[in-house]
Amino acid sequence: MFKHIVMWKLKDTAEGANKKENLQKMKSMLEALKPKIKEIKFLEVGLSVSDVTDFYDIVLTTEFKDAKDMDTYQKHPEHQKVAEFIGKVRLERKVVDYNV
């Protein structure tokens, strides 16, 4: 099993929307990937319940059979569409990948 975890801080405003609106859109877009990309074994999106400045706003936890399947996921056109939107609204991003 291979885990891929990503956390983002979002801009206060971007793409004509505020942070809260972009968080909801991002969450919906990410959750919509699971039925579209067969390599995803597990996907969970969490929104932070704290607005402490050191905290990140949103986290994505995904699981794959192996790193090769995660690579396929990252190159998938549906993932690329989501990544393009996220690139426009994010302020910071942190990632960790590991084998279970």
SSE order: EEEHEEHHE
User: How many DSSP helices?
Assistant: 3
Uncertain ranges: none
**What integer value in Å does the Rg equal?**
13 Å
Largest sheet, in brief, is: 4 strands, antiparallel
The share of residues in helices is 25-40%
Oligomer designation: single chain
CATH architectural designation: 2-Layer Sandwich
Mean pLDDT, to the nearest integer, reads 97
Number of domains: 1
- Spatial order of strands in the largest sheet: 4-5-1-6
Structural class: alpha+beta
Per DSSP, what share of the residues sits in E-state strands of 2 or more residues?
35-45%
The name CATH uses for the topology is Alpha-Beta Plaits
Question: How far is the N terminus from the C terminus?
Answer: 5 Å
Per CATH, the class reads Alpha Beta
Q: What would the principal axes of the Cα set say about the shape? A: globular
Number of strands: 6
What does this structure look like?
The structure is a single chain. It contains three helices and six strands; from the N terminus they run E-E-E-H-E-E-H-H-E. It is globular. The longest helix is centred in the first third of the chain and has 13 residues, at 19-31. The N and C termini lie close together (5 Å). The mean pLDDT is 97. The protein has one domain (2-99): Alpha-Beta Plaits. It has a four-stranded antiparallel sheet with strand order 4-5-1-6. The chain has a two-stranded antiparallel sheet with strand order 2-3. It is of the alpha+beta class and 100 residues long. The protein is 35% helix and 36% strand. Helix 1 (19-31) packs antiparallel against helix 3 (77-89).
